[in-house]
Amino acid sequence: MQTLPTILMLLGASVVSVIVFRLANLPPVLGYLLVGTLIGPRALNLVGDFAGAQHLAEFGVVFLMFSIGLEFSLPKLHSMKRIVFGLGLLQVLLTLAVVTAIVVSLGLSWQAGVALGGTLAMSSTAVLTKLLSERLELDSAHGREVMGVLLFQDLAVVPLLILIPSFSESPERMATMIGVATVKALLVLSLVLFFGQRLMNKWFFIVARGKSAELFMLNVLLVTLGLAYVTELAGLSLALGAFVAGILIAETQYRHHVEEDIKPFRDVLMGLFFVTIGMLLDAPLVLANLPLVLGVLAALLVVKFALMLGLSRLFGAAPGSALRTGLWLCAGGEFGFVLLSEMGPLRLMPPLALQAVLAALVISMLLAPIFVQYSNRIVLRFAASEWLMRSMQLTQLAAQTMNTEKHVVICGYGRSGQHLARFMEQEAVAYVALDRDPERVREAAAGGENVIYGDAARRETLLAAGVGRASTLIITFAETRAAERVLEHVRQLNPDLPVIVRTLDERDIETLRHAGAAEVVPETLEVSMVLASHALRHAGVPIAQVLERFSQTRLAGYRTLRGFFHGESDLEEDALDSKETRLRAIHLVAGAYAIGHSLGDLDLRRLGVEVTAIRRGNIRGLEPSPETRFRAGDVVVVLGTPTAMAAAETRLLQG
């Protein structure tokens, strides 16, 4: 029985590769590919049951397609239709056409050209989306183009997974198979979508009423694998059924819950899939034919970059934005490996050519983060208009703030920023707002509001906005990394400028204060306080007393409100290494070490834990003093991270 040793080998190799590549700040998918190459049959040959590993890894593609289905949103597609079905469609079709022409000119079949074209047309959704998010460029001009093209590429995988398996047949047989598959797909999709959309909400409501995380997870697996099996019975792929399941659940109110539940399965199985792809790589053969591999790599990068640059310009992008889009999308992606795995058994191309393409895709994905990292430098070097545009933006910004002093700089002009600006106007306080969404800036500026296009995370933008003369700077977006970057620049330009920062909850308060924020406003805590003010007023508590209580709470850094008790209904991860603080009640049973000791003796703060309350009988004492001695039966409420609380519990109970 080779299956268990194979799985253990795959899991062990995957764990090591993820640790190493995380430390190197590289995408784990590359670690999976390289580890697969190392332990595969063409290298160390440490995997006994290669066929079994491939069968297990197929479910990674199933759950990946399910995740893509969850992201499929008709309103989202409609809002981005010009980029998705214009730029994205042309990118895939032109890549298919160019690659097919090259392959046919080399004496291979057009079927091989189409299959290879689809493989090379893909870019990495996982890597590029993560990079866009980390670099805060999702709302930039090139960020929207990149996301639109990636979305169409993900959708294009579905017909390609149906089309490629038919290429091994004769032209007549292939036409028949494609026609039958299309009819089947339309029939299955129509039935499932028509009846499924009516049933899915009701079914998930019934399951959710059970209030069981285990039941909910089982139901998600049942729906996903069940629909995948239905499409396989219809002669279609498992991936298509999973994609349909994702679409159905995306229309329900449980979408985000499902996404969180399915993510561990998807990531683990996708990791195994990439390991098996790496096993297909013949390292000795690739090294012996390195010039061929480098030639394929160069052709891939140059062709995709040139196509995206031209298409982006055709769709009206500025030269600098078009260059960035080309640099971001020129490398290969994970779906390329999915399609390449479909090509292998069909023998559409010589083994050496397949190995060269596989190696080129791996190297291109290694290069993708590097292209992104240096994209701004490359654009500024080769796009003369980029300097001019940036200079014009900063000049416009500086001109509007030149004669302004003691004004407020608002970073981010979303809902919070706009509401804040209206309060400033009502009190006749001068302000200037910065935002990176050109459409929002255009609409708001046309409406007479004082907002300018600019990235608040850039030093030169803040300088042009007049932070040296401002009275206050307010960060309205709840993105901690971006806020830290703004705070770093403000410390350099005007260390005495008070900065008020918005955050979602209390977990980032200390981080932002340490970065230089004068005030941190945690949204969830402030909402709770507003609710409490209304409730206390209706309960007869004088409003002056309520305001005084809230003032004390804010001055104390919300200390009495920090943390909360977690339950099964909370979606936050409960991993022991989580940095999120939470509350836990620890019962001191007879014989516990803490009994008879004072709070000061135990020094729980040294463990990173704060005792917020002690309940003794029906009396609950808040913020106990260090002299408080514990008794048997006390319930100690502690605040800290899960790891710190585990250490504190051991200290209280065992010493």
Please characterize this protein's 3D structure.
This protein is α/β, with parallel strands linked by helices and 655 residues long. About 1% of the residues have low confidence. Strand 1, helix 20 and strand 2 form a beta-alpha-beta unit. It folds into four domains: 378 residues, Up-down Bundle (Na+/H+ antiporter like fold), CATH 1.20.1530.20; 131 residues, Rossmann fold; 32 residues, no CATH class; 73 residues, Regulator of K+ conductance, C-terminal domain (Alpha-Beta Plaits, 2-Layer Sandwich). The strands form two sheets. Strands 3-2-1-4-5-6 form a six-stranded parallel beta sheet, sandwiched between helices. The chain has 28 helices and ten strands. It starts with a helix and ends with a helix. Helix 6 packs antiparallel against helix 16.
Task: Give short descriptive properties of this protein.
4 domains; 6-stranded parallel sheet; Na+/H+ antiporter like fold; globular; alpha/beta; 655 residues; 4-stranded antiparallel sheet
Describe this structure in a few short sentences:
This protein is of the alpha/beta class. The protein is built from 28 helices and 10 strands.
Give the topology, please.
Blueprint: H1 3-23, H2 28-39, H3 50-71, H4 74-79, H5 81-105, H6 110-121, H7 125-134, H8 141-163, H9 171-208, H10 213-233, H11 238-250, H12 255-279, H13 283-288, H14 290-314, H15 319-329, H16 334-343, H17 351-373, H18 375-382, H19 384-401, E1 408-411, H20 415-426, E2 431-435, H21 438-446, E3 451-453, H22 459-464, E4 472-475, H23 480-493, E5 499-503, H24 509-515, E6 519-522, H25 523-538, H26 543-555, E7 582-587, H27 599-602, E8 610-616, E9 619-622, E10 635-640, H28 642-654
